[in-house]
Write a structure and sequence with these properties.
With 469 residues, the protein is mostly beta strands. The protein is built from one helix and 38 strands.
Length: 469
């Protein structure tokens, strides 16, 4: 995504590159913003070049205490899907660095819904693309906004009248918002980077977000309500989840599997095959869930924390924060939740939460308890560790890429991340890159049955026997 901060009051303009096939069929885009926030944008079918998506409140904060501006995403489309090469940016979100400047006269009046204390123009005369000074939006239509949006933040699609031809841009690695044959969206492997990891085949091309071992099987959850199960990591069976919402987190007690997702979605299953929707009593997006031995604990947007002893009756808890809470872990005596802007909360019981100083402002994507310490990973190669959840130490990973999942087995730590990133370490401190053979974002990784399993975008599933480590 190409980011341009030359609007005023924190307003930010960006260019999001999509392929012609994505424009025709629609797609869902997971975007990490430079300020550490995350959002999932649903792009509808029949999108046109230079249509503009407006994310209210997702721009920059111009000064301390001020409200954030808006983020404007201009769609650019490549004319032929063909054999275009992959862009190195996993979101194809290209950035221009330029600070905000003083207000300028708008080309046309602000739309009715843009009701801020200082009426903001959509674009200034200087900011309009060449030969488009006269363009005006013909309609604006609400579309679904996902990752990290609070109820006060709404996404609008401004359909603009556009002239001229399309320019060719690199094809983005992404997943379509509709399920299509895997043969037409084969897992993208890197032929120049051979790997011991084996690509497995599963039905559909949805993003696969989290994988765990539960009830004697691997369980994977993902976009559009996707749930897959496998007894061995090779044969994968799609299950009916009873929801079309994206599922982001999954955990298990000895008798119940719980998955959580967008718009307060919670589904449960005793066996991974039969799923029941539960009432969470919230519409906030839910990103992670953990079982503490006596309590399910869910973390979500706007500081949401929910607890339940049985997966059916859910109670909201006071987190003391409005940050997005992304990940959960349990040590046996302490719960830890991590989130945006380096947020860390701890609790002995899931009810009383204490903020901790993480020493970082990075987005913390995941947290686990491994070998008597908490390990949290996230944006810009961040890794911090703690033996008690209170004092955190930054570790060097040697990569600027976002780290998304972490697992350990057989004396080997493995982290997964953007661009097919895998890194390994014998001790959790000294890290080396390992070839995954894939170019997809790898959202999650787990280990069981002497097998590492990592999952990611476009239905990616990769496995590696621990004996190969």
């Amino acid at each position: 995504m190409e980011l341009n901060r030359n609007l005023f009051n924190g307003d930010t303009r960006a260019t999001l590159f999509i392929s012609a096939q994505e424009a025709l069929n629609g797609t869902v885009r997971f975007i990490h913003l430079p300020n550490g926030r995350k959002v999932t944008v649903q792009i509808p079918p029949d999108s046109q070049a230079e249509e503009v998506l407006v994310l209210l409140g997702y721009g920059e904060i111009p000064e301390p205490g001020a409200a954030a501006g808006h983020l404007y995403l201009t769609l650019m489309v490549q004319p032929e899907p063909g054999q275009a090469s992959l862009d190195t940016d996993p979101e194809n979100l290209q950035l221009e660095q330029n600070l905000t400047q003083a207000p300028v006269t708008p080309v046309y009046n602000p739309l009715p819904w843009m009701t801020t204390p200082t009426q903001r123009p959509l674009f200034s005369q200087e900011e309009l693309p060449r030969n488009e000074a006269a363009r005006i939006p013909s309609v604006y239509t609400p579309v679904q906004a996902k990752r990290g949006l609070s109820p006060l933040v709404t996404l609008f699609l401004i359909v603009a009248i556009v002239g001229g031809g399309l320019s060719a841009f690199g094809l983005l690695r992404t997943h379509s918002s509709r399920e299509i044959d895997m043969q037409s969206t084969a897992i993208q492997m890197d032929p120049a980077n051979p790997s011991l990891w084996q690509a497995q085949t599963a039905t559909g091309s949805q993003a696969l977000i989290t994988v765990i071992w539960a009830q004697s099987q691997f369980v994977v959850v993902g976009d559009m309500g996707t749930i897959l199960t496998s007894p061995d990591g090779s044969t994968w069976n799609p299950q009916t989840s009873s929801t079309s919402q994206a599922l982001w987190g999954v955990t298990s007690s000895p008798s119940l599997i719980v998955a959580v997702g967008l718009s307060g979605t919670i589904v449960t299953s005793p066996d991974g095959k039969t799923w029941t929707t539960q009432n969470s009593s919230t519409t906030e997006d839910l990103w992670s869930v953990i079982w503490s031995g006596s309590l399910f604990v869910v973390a979500g947007s706007d500081g949401t924390i929910l607890t339940s002893p049985d997966g059916k009756t859910w109670t909201p808890q006071n987190s003391g924060t409005s940050q997005i809470l992304d990940a959960t872990a349990w040590s046996g005596s302490l719960l830890v939740i991590t989130g945006d802007y380096g947020t860390i909360l701890t609790s002995p019981d899931g009810r009383i939460w204490t903020p901790q100083n993480s020493g970082t402002s990075a987005l913390l994507e995941d947290v686990v308890w491994i070998n008597s310490q908490f390990m949290s990973i996230g944006a810009e190669g961040t890794l911090i560790t703690s033996s008690d959840g209170t004092s955190w130490i930054a570790q060097e990973t040697g990569t600027p890429q976002t780290l998304l999942g972490i697992a350990w087995s057989n004396g080997k730590y493995i982290v997964s991340g953007d661009n097919g990133l895998l890194m390994t370490s014998p001790d959790g401190y000294n890290w080396s890159p390992e070839s995954s053979g894939s170019l997809q974002r790898l959202w999650s990784i787990t280990m069981s049955q002497n097998l590492f399993v990592t999952v990611g975008d476009n239905g990616t599933i990769l496995t590696l026997p621990t004996s190969s480590c």
